[in-house]
Design a protein that fits this description.
The chain has 321 residues and is mainly alpha-helical. It folds into 3 domains: 83 residues, no CATH class; 75 residues, no CATH class; 145 residues, Lysozyme (Orthogonal Bundle), CATH 1.10.530.10. Helices cover 61% and strands 1% of the residues. The protein has a two-stranded antiparallel sheet.
């Protein structure tokens, strides 16, 4: 009988269940030199101990042994993938990522080439040199952190996702964003800064985050109207405005305060600013249905990191959150 924990180990380490079952069946009833029910080779024991596996439990607990075997399979698969990827002048999975996230192939090629010249850092991972600061957001978006760090193709997909997200407004219709680079802050009307300060004081939502949303949604244009009918500085649709807004959505202070109320409601529900932003873009129910992750909608997958990127820029410029 196959232990139920084998299924969980296969899912956790993202290896084929059939491969684990085959290894388990091959060891059943045999005497072998390896350790435990999966016959783990002794050469792996120091590596497994460094990854949190107790030698005693590897010998005595079947589920711990199976989990360790799943990790070994994952590492071996990564090594095979890495050998295939590095043998290619241009990795096929890089082209696939470009198609998946709708980034032009020449842009991805230039990005990939530039990353090969980045100096290696302990705080960057894989061939795309993913900064450690992106890992929490990538987890929310459904990227397995272990794969992003160690699997070349997962790492490239994550890098292209970041590339797509940082330039989301250039392609995604209805955002109101006109394509100003993320590191080029447009002139922000003093009144909007004041309104953001007021809304932040009323709700506790960071001022820089409110301005980042306004920047992403409308380019700080209080009169903006999208093709989908979203209105004003914070791009409210009428049904959401009826719940969170007062007066006119084209009034900057009204819009900023309503946006802050909505973001605060979402943050209290999801306990996460990235998920609150996902809910602002796609609706809170979409986040719930995605299992408290960023929903698998192209616009939302681009929107969240784009706003967070703008938030970092604004917060660093002002010196205040």
């Amino acid at each position: 009988m196959i232990p139920p924990c084998l299924e969980a180990a296969a899912q956790h380490w993202q290896v084929r269940r059939a491969a684990l079952v085959s290894q388990y069946d091959a060891q059943a009833g045999r005497s072998h030199a390896g350790v435990g029910v999966m016959g783990i080779p002794a050469v792996w024991l120091p590596i497994l101990e460094k990854n949190g596996f107790s030698l005693r439990r590897l010998k005595t607990d079947a589920c711990t042994n199976i989990a360790a075997a799943a990790l070994i399979l994952a590492v071996e698969q990564v090594q095979k993938n890495h050998a295939k990827v590095t043998a290619q002048p241009v990795p096929a999975c890089l082209r696939q990522a470009a198609q998946t996230y709708a980034v032009s192939w020449p842009v991805v090629q230039r990005y990939y080439t530039a990353q090969q010249n980045v100096s290696v850092s302990a705080r960057r991972y894989g061939p795309i040199h993913i900064p450690a600061g992106w890992l929490p957001l990538l987890r929310y978006a459904g990227f397995p952190e272990w794969r992003v760090k160690h699997d070349s193709c997962w790492n490239m997909a994550a890098g292209v996702w970041i590339l797509a997200a940082e330039h989301a407004g250039d392609r995604v219709p209805g955002t109101g964003w006109k394509g100003t680079p993320i590191n080029g802050i447009p002139a922000i009307p003093a009144r909007i800064v004041q309104d953001a300060t007021y809304a932040s004081a009323q709700t506790g939502v960071p001022k820089a985050l409110l301005m980042a949303v306004a920047w992403q949604e409308s380019g700080f244009n209080p009169q903006a109207v999208s093709s989908a009918g979203a209105q004003g500085l914070m791009q409210f649709i009428p049904s959401t405005w009826a719940r969170y807004g007062q007066g006119s959505p084209f009034n900057p202070r009204n819009a900023m305060l309503a946006g802050a109320r909505y973001l605060r409601h979402l943050a209290l529900e999801f306990h996460s600013w990235p998920l609150a932003l996902a809910g602002y873009n796609a609706g809170g129910q979409a986040v719930v249905e995605a299992g408290d992750h960023i929903p698998d909608f192209t616009q939302t997958q681009h929107y969240v990191p784009a706003v967070l990127g703008r938030y970092r820029v604004l917060a660093s410029q002002s010196g205040t959150p």
